[in-house]
TrEMBL record:
Protein name listed in UniProt: Cytochrome c oxidase subunit 2
Record-stated family: Belongs to the cytochrome c oxidase subunit 2 family.
Gene source species: Macaca silenus
Gene field: COII
PANTHER family: CYTOCHROME C OXIDASE SUBUNIT 2 (PTHR22888:SF9), CYTOCHROME C OXIDASE, SUBUNIT II (PTHR22888)
Lineage, top ranks: Eukaryota, Metazoa, Chordata, Craniata, Vertebrata
GO cellular component: mitochondrial inner membrane
Source species, domain of life: Eukaryota
Amino acid sequence: LTNTNITDAQEMETIWTILPAIILILIALPSLRILYLTDEINNPSFTIKSIGHQWYWTYEYTDYGGLIFNSYMLPPLFLNPGDLRLLEVDNRVVLPIEAPVRMMITSQDVLHSWAIPTLGLKTDAVPGRLNQTVFTATRPGVYYGQCSEICGANHSFMPIVAELIP
């Protein structure tokens, strides 16, 4: 009976719950706008559509007459000396350096992931959804990647090879 005059301080609890929420919203709104603006590119030099299939990729250069080709992993019997086993493909994606490239990535069957770690690229390929990534390469060379999703048996045998040329 000594503390009968103490209240629950509901007004104070309401203030210290709502005030941090308002601060977080004020921080998040400009950040979301900046995040959206950095993802958009107005005039890319190339737009390439990459479609993930079970064990291979299909690439479409949509800006140049609809050039379409498949990219399969080379079997060990067809490798030349110096080629990387399980990473070399029969048709590479050829791109210029110092030019903005937009990759539109989707899948036809299951989840895949179009990933080239040395370029800092990783975008999921989801059936029925068209994801986008934009990059500008600064150094020529051959860059290797793989599907990094567990998309079925032999999922790691979906290599990605991008050849960047001046």
